[in-house]
Amino acid sequence: MRYRTLGPHRVSAIGLGAMPLSLEGRPEERRALATVHAALDAGVTLLDTADSYHLPGAEPGHNELLVARALAAYGGDTDDLLVATKGGRGRPADGGWTVNGDPRHLKAAAEASLRRLGVEAIGLYQLHKPDPAVPFEESVGALRELLDEGKIRLAGVSNTDADRIRTAHRILGDRLVSVQNQYSPAVRDSEAELRLCAELGLAFLPWSPLGGIARSSLDGPSRTEGEARFSAFHEVAAARGISPQRVCLAWLLARSPAVIPIPGASRPESVRDSAGAADLVLGAEELARLNGAIKQVG
Predict the structure, then answer these.
(1) Residue 219 and residue 216: Cα distance in Å, rounded?
(2) How many CB atoms lie within 10 A of CB 163?
(3) Per-residue tens of pLDDT for the chain, all 298 residues
(4) Total-model pTM
(5) How far apart are CA 142 and CA 136, in angstroms?
(6) Is residue 183 annotated as a catalytic residue, yes or no?
(7) Catalytic residue from among 3, 53, 125, 183
(8) How many Cβ atoms are within 10 Å of 176's Cβ, its own excluded?
């Protein structure tokens, strides 16, 4: 396992996004716990969750409670583990996603997350999404208060743009350590934010990092639109005898030292495959081929 820097922490170059373990189509709990344990066994030291990762209309915190149970049941060392969670979104009964960046809500949500995770302080707490109805400075100010109170140790922002990242950095200083935006072969709207993270020394945590890549080769042969558009990833994978997902994650790592992908998984086999990307170093010709394919897609 290779490592990267996230604030004062040295974390695995590949993290685990725990969201699929709690949303629609989630696995039964035994497999969910085994998936988290497989990540830890593979050397993953960054777990990402959120209070809103639960079934529509259900009680908040299913995913946080699941992560806490998985860690409590794990027999290995977790001293180097960083658990990151998020607040500011909700999942009502209609299955949509709401946004609430009110400082009072964020502080109460963080305290509830702290209790569910069973820790003295949350390692990394992230504003899940800016609320258009609340000044961004006020939402980030709630993070600053949580930091000052010792309820969270580090802060991050998610689903945001470069101007807001600069604002958060001005307010929080070096206690702002990460930005979590969608980024993948199919979605690259955050190129400017990725460059800014590298400039400011922030970790960039791509969510849905496998966008555009077909389902895992572990599922057997498939032909999809994603496979056709990003065939170079599949061709490099076939030449190496590995999954296109592993190639994709290695490509993301090569984009910038700031990148720490957090692919989701709902079974041990998938998480082990993703973790293997941390040790996959793509050659110059392979990267040129992949980057050329990306440019052609647009």
Answers:
(1) 6
(2) 12
(3) 999 999 999 999 999 999 999 999 999 999 999 999 999 999 999 999 999 999 999 989 999 999 999 999 999 999 999 999 999 999 999 999 999 999 999 999 999 999 999 999 999 999 999 999 999 999 999 999 999 999 999 999 999 999 999 999 999 999 999 999 999 999 999 999 999 999 999 999 999 999 988 554 444 444 454 457 789 999 999 999 999 999 999 999 999 999 999 999 999 999 999 999 999 999 999 999 999 988 876 5
(4) 0.94
(5) 10
(6) no
(7) 53
(8) 26
